[in-house]
Design brief:
The chain has 282 residues and is of the alpha/beta class. Helices cover 40% and strands 15% of the residues.
């Protein structure tokens, strides 16, 4: 089994630096897919209420026979719809996620989007403080938060998010936001770490580094993330690719390799795949 290094979060919790994401995996396939990942050696699983696959994910976790202490489970509050999110609504959604997962507690619970136009993420975070204090989430954090959102939380709450899970890949390296994370003591976690489709993985700069190391394009991009210090959660439903994405600890990129991948996102605002957090309100 690959020995995945841990990232120490700001409350002392140890989070595997490489995990398995289940975005867009139907609930009917989640049990099989997560079981494959666990068999391959993954111990960190990232899901979310809006993915609709917490139940299937939970079934795989229960059937695997892996001690709970060896697993790291993340889920997220879907703070969408038109309602104003108060304490009762947040706790209700959190309880529903635990019930679907079949767990008494998760390792990490995230606010999925800031939705700044609603002006309610600080109120939501106050309930996250309560959840963290209860121990039903070992750590709490956010997803898709911008520097201004993080600064506001810092001004209104003593609890610093343990993680900010953001879109991040060589075409959108998020250097400014990563610098804010480093200053505040927040771990950077990358969703869509391989971009979308095959665009990133077929770029000459990426394939040249892959050929140099005798590795796949996906493996060298994941290695780039790891050497930057990012936590990554690649997603696949293909067993061979699930295993391949975990096999990234037997080689290292040199400075020239890192520079080549860095250059893909240099000199611009980057190429975003997902929604703009400043405007997203689905």
């Amino acid at each position: 089994m690959n020995q995945v290094p841990g990232t120490k979060l700001n409350n002392g919790t140890l989070m595997p630096q490489l995990g398995f994401g289940v975005w867009q995996v139907p609930d009917t396939e989640a049990e099989r897919t997560v079981a494959t990942a666990l068999e391959a050696g993954y111990r960190s699983i990232d899901t979310a209420a809006v993915y609709g696959n917490e139940a299937g994910t939970g079934k795989a976790l229960a059937a695997a026979g892996i001690p709970r202490g060896e697993l790291f489970v993340t889920t997220k509050l879907w703070n969408g719809r038109s309602e104003t999110w108060g304490r009762d609504g947040v706790l209700r959604e959190f309880d529903a996620s635990l019930d679907k997962l079949g767990l008494d507690a998760v390792d990490l619970y995230l606010i999925h989007w800031p939705r700044p136009m609603r002006d309610d993420f600080v109120a939501i975070w106050k309930t996250f403080e309560e959840i963290a204090e209860s121990g039903r989430a070992k750590a709490v954090g956010v997803s898709n938060f911008r520097p201004a959102d993080l600064e506001r939380l810092g001004a209104e709450s003593p609890l610093v998010p343990a993680v900010n899970q953001i879109e991040l890949h060589p075409l959108l390296p998020q250097a400014e936001l990563r610098a804010v994370h480093a200053r505040l003591g927040i771990a950077t976690e990358a969703w869509s770490p391989l971009g979308q489709g095959k665009e990133l993985l077929t770029l000459p700069a990426v394939t040249a580094v892959a050929d140099k190391h005798g590795r796949s394009a996906a493996q060298v991009v994941l290695r780039w993330h790891l050497q930057l210090g990012n936590v990554v959660i690649p997603k696949s439903v293909t067993p061979a690719r699930i295993r391949e994405n975990l096999d990234v600890f037997g080689f290292e990129l040199d400075a020239a390799d890192i520079a080549a991948l860095d250059s893909l996102g240099a000199g611009s605002a980057g190429r975003r795949i997902g929604p703009d957090p400043a405007a997203f309100d689905a």
